[in-house]
Design goal:
It is built from 14 helices and 5 strands. By secondary structure, the protein is of the alpha+beta class. The protein has 2 domains: 191 residues, no CATH class; 116 residues, Heat Shock Protein 90, CATH 3.30.565.10. Helix 8 packs across helix 13. The longest helix has 102 residues. It comes from Paractinoplanes ferrugineus.
Length: 423
């Protein structure tokens, strides 16, 4: 059950109870009307036919304003008119016979039903109390006879006490009911807002999941693009270079066979690394060796294939770093050497791997032709961009210094996060 339905059901039951209480005056009026002719008491001031007309008028008045128009209960102006007319009829009936005091007492029920607020209910309760006290004192004709005024004063005080107590209790009950209804409505509104917030959060969650999937797809594409460039493109370039050298050496010579064997080795190595890239594994050289040894193997193989002097210098205390960091530095060394082979025409290359307290750096310097870093160079620019993107993914950086005729220096810097420290 929702809070809105709870409010509606509570209101319906309250209205049904109030409406059921409005039928009580009909029974009290019928009893009073029967007692007047049966007992012959009550000192009627009017003939029975006129009393009958007053009774009929009272029934019609209550029937028209209450039972036939229950929706008027919330109309303060209509209910004030109804109660004023009812009070007049009560006084006329009590004036005609004191036995109608039984009916006069039920005016308290209409005080709570028809009037709103403590002030109007206090006034209405006082009017009903006076009529009830008059009937209990013997009627209007008994007032002023003997010590009837003293008796009337006591009875009136008793009825006023009852009237005020009933008015207070009724008002407090209605106020508490209104507070409960307002509280339930506030809770219903809070629940509605909570449901809206949950729906909105669900939508945001779905949106974040979609964005995360898109980001994951983008990152994977970037990774595969880098792997293809670093592994396949470099391998194919090396194979082409060796095949061209073998072709230039001529068939059957020792140089021809050496270049052909180098091309076969590059093809096998590139195929193996391509498979490992698809499976998102570490490079094979890092599986069997530490980072300095792995870069040393790359440098040695590259120097032999390209007939260029190359050396690796390691400074600091080597230590095992996160696999992502070591893989990035190894790929950076491979890409830098590939750029040297393709564009620099260098005779000597020096690599320096430096382990420091917080960072690890890799510097690659050559004495080749150099270039203007600001000038557009499609292939070299992609290689530098790939290295920079790889380093950015591990919170690293890449600096390039070069000028035509003065060689090139590439400096990669990455955080030195050890495996134990990461855990």
């Amino acid at each position: 059950m929702t809070d809105q339905s709870a409010v509606a059901r509570l209101e319906v039951w309250r209205r049904r109870l109030d409406l059921a209480l409005t039928y009580v005056p009909y029974g009290a009026l019928a009893c009073s009307a029967l007692l007047v002719p049966l007992t012959g008491d009550g000192h009627p001031h009017l003939p029975y036919r006129y009393i009958g007309l007053l009774v009929a008028a009272s029934v019609g008045w209550m029937l028209w304003w209450i039972n036939l128009h229950p929706g008027w209960a919330d109309d303060r102006r209509r209910m004030t008119i109804f109660f004023a007319g009812l009070v007049v009829l009560i006084y006329l009936l009590v004036w005609s016979s004191s036995l109608f005091g039984f009916f006069a007492w039920t005016g308290y029920l209409f005080t709570a039903y028809a009037l709103r607020g403590r002030g109007p209910r206090a006034v209405g309760g006082t009017l009903v109390a006076v009529a009830t006290a008059v009937s209990q004192a013997g009627g209007f004709q008994e007032l002023g006879v003997g010590d009837s005024w003293g008796y009337f004063a006591v009875v009136l005080a008793f009825n006023l006490t009852i009237a005020n107590a009933m008015t207070f209790l009724t008002t407090m009950t209605h106020e508490q009911h209104e507070k409960r209804r307002a509280m339930i409505e506030e809770l219903a509104e809070a629940n509605r807002r909570l449901e809206d917030a949950l729906r909105e959060n669900a939508g945001l969650h779905a949106q974040l999941l979609a964005q995360a999937r898109e980001a994951g797809v983008h990152d994977e594409r970037q990774r595969m693009a880098g792997e293809i460039h670093d592994v396949l493109a470099q391998g194919l370039t090396g194979i082409v270079t060796q095949l061209e050298a073998a072709d230039a050496a001529g068939g059957g010579s020792a140089g021809w066979r050496r270049h052909l064997d180098a091309a076969k080795g590059l093809a096998r190595e590139s195929l193996t690394e391509a498979r490992r890239s698809v499976q998102a594994l570490r490079p094979q050289t890092l599986e069997a060796s530490a980072l300095p040894e792995a870069i040393g193997e790359v440098v040695t193989g590259w120097a032999a294939r390209n007939d260029v002097r190359a050396e690796l210098i390691t400074t600091g205390t080597p230590r095992s770093l996160l696999p992502e960091i070591e893989t990035t530095l190894l790929r950076t060394a491979q890409e830098a050497l590939a750029n040297v082979a393709r564009h620099a025409g260098a005779g000597r290359v020096a690599l320096t791997l430096s382990y420091m307290e917080d960072v690890v750096t890799l510097d690659v310097r050559d004495d080749g032709a150099g270039f203007d870093p600001a000038a557009p160079r499609s292939e070299a620019s992609f290689g530098l961009a790939a290295m920079r993107e790889r380093l950015l993914r591990i919170a690293g950086s890449l600096e390039v210094e070069s000028e035509p005729g003065a060689g090139t220096a590439v400096s990669a810097c990455a955080p030195a996060i050890a495996i134990g420290a990461a855990a």
